[in-house]
User: Which sequence fits this backbone?
């Protein structure tokens, strides 16, 4: 059913499925574009992290590649001064309230933030903005999983996974602005919700906010 | 945070019966419920979520997103601290901190006896009096921490832990 189209990204000609979002076409062809909130099955895309900007020839301004369907003959540049500026600002905003302590984070070396910083030569520690790390209250109430909101980047992928994959709906966004956070209903501990500890949130979290608990033997706690 | 009992949920059922129970109608439903109950108890939000078939946490997210919704019952005395630009600049935060300390509650909270509730508001419209606090409907200007003690004394606040201390401080300053 899928019709192939030919697009050009950074001078490389490649084929993609018509209608597919540009971000996924690029990633599948090993062209990296930073992204946090995007996930192939999340439709429509949240487009809230503002990291996946690219330039498309003929378009006046950079666009988010997670929302842009590929069309025949599209010519894309993943880097440009405008794109780099937008991505650097968005990344610095995300990092400005991130509780930065990579050495103690279970996602160290697998973290999407570290990957973005490495790929785009950005600093993890904000330089222009004052760092205002969230007061990370760690929810330790579950047996096998914990949530550290200080590490959360508010991408919302866990909320989608909890609803659409786990069919539970124990977590969601609450409040707004600087106080926005992923919480449970009434800010209850996770153990007092419908959470089944299925682990979908841990699997989908791009950083170390939702993590598995590790026991003294270095193994995952089991239920 | 207090969890509302089920006894108060009859008005919620009545309001739900008037709406097509659809996600789109969440905000008007929440507005009506708050108008009826004065605030949005957790039990009411759970009931509404079930009716509209969304996770309860989504209703909670909505109720905490918009300033118009309150999660705690209004106190007998509603204390509103102005955080408009002028009040903010001349110490609105100090007034808020003083109230928080004296009442031992945070912003948007209500004392357990429901006598006082505390919230921040944007400009009240009398910036020359900054920092401004509105007690029920009465406007208080140039509110210093000492004035906070005076206001609470006028409202009959006695017996909270810090009451003795600040009262004697005030007494010490008068002569």
Assistant:
């Amino acid at each position: 059913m899928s019709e192939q189209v030919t697009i050009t990204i950074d001078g490389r000609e490649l084929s993609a499925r018509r209608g597919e979002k540009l971000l996924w076409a690029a990633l599948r062809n090993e062209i990296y574009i930073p992204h946090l909130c995007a996930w192939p099955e999340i439709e429509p895309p949240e487009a809230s992290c503002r990291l996946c900007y690219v330039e498309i020839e003929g378009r006046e301004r950079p666009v988010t590649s997670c929302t842009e369907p590929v069309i025949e003959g599209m010519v894309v540049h993943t880097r440009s001064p405008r794109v780099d500026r937008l991505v650097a600002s968005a990344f610095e905003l995300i990092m400005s309230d991130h509780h930065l302590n990579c050495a103690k984070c279970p996602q160290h070396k697998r973290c999407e933030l570290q990957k973005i910083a490495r790929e785009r030569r950005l600093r993890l520690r904000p330089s222009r903005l004052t760092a205002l790390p969230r007061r990370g209250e760690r929810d330790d109430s579950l047996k096998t999983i914990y949530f550290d909101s200080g590490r959360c980047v508010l991408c919302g992928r866990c909320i989608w996974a909890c609803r659409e994959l786990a069919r539970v709906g124990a977590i969601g966004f609450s409040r707004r602005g600087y106080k926005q956070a992923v919480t449970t209903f009434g800010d209850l501990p996770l153990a007092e919700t419908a959470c089944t500890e299925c682990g979908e949130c841990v699997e989908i979290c791009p950083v170390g906010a939702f993590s598995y608990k590790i026991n003294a033997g270095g193994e995952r706690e089991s239920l | 945070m207090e969890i509302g009992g089920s006894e108060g949920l009859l008005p919620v059922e009545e309001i739900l019966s008037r709406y097509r129970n659809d996600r789109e109608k969440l905000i008007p439903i929440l507005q009506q419920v708050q108008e009826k109950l004065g605030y949005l108890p957790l039990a009411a939000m759970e009931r509404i979520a079930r009716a509209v078939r969304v996770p309860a946490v989504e209703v909670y997210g909505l109720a905490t997103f918009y300033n118009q919704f309150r999660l705690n019952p209004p106190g007998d005395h509603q204390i509103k601290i102005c955080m408009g630009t002028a009040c903010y600049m001349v110490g609105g935060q100090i007034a808020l901190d003083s109230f928080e300390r004296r009442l031992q509650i945070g912003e948007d909270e209500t004392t357990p006896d429901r006598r006082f509730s505390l919230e921040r508001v944007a400009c009240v419209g009398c910036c020359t009096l900054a920092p401004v606090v509105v007690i029920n409907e009465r406007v208080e200007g140039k509110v210093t921490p000492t004035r906070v003690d005076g206001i609470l004394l006028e409202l009959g606040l006695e017996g909270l832990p810090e009451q003795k201390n600040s009262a004697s401080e005030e007494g010490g300053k008068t002569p």
Chain B touches chain A at residues 1, 3, 42, 45-46, 54-61, 64-65 (CB under 8 Å).
